[in-house]
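fyi for ur records
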Amino acid sequence: MDQAWSNPSSAKSKLPDELLEEDYVLFGWMDCCQHVSGKNGWTKKFFAINDTGDMWMGTSENMAELQKVDLQTSMIQEVLESEHPLVFQVSDKLFLRADQLKTKQDWIGIASFRVYAFLSDAFNRRHPSSHPQEE
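which gave:
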């Protein structure tokens, strides 16, 4: 687990082959609220989101299969309204931008969905329009 946090390629290499063929922009762990024995409880799940907004989720980064799930844009509408730099929308598709996992402290909580992402220096260099450069 600690390796996955510090080494993004480690977590990436354990993804299913069909997922590795996707150009996904975010992957990692998130806390999900689910019904457990009639009560709401939090559980940690591994997820990956590709560049077209499709999302897969599973209980472990080591699992052979991840289940495709619907990405509900309404769940993180408040993030879009706050102009969060990690989130942008095209038509009805929601995109989350991130390059790599680093440490737990580096991750940024996103709305009630509690998705975590890390905006790396590499992203800033590749997308200078996101952060105006000094002249």
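Residues 1-11, 73-128, 130-135 have pLDDT under 50 and may be disordered. thats all i got for now
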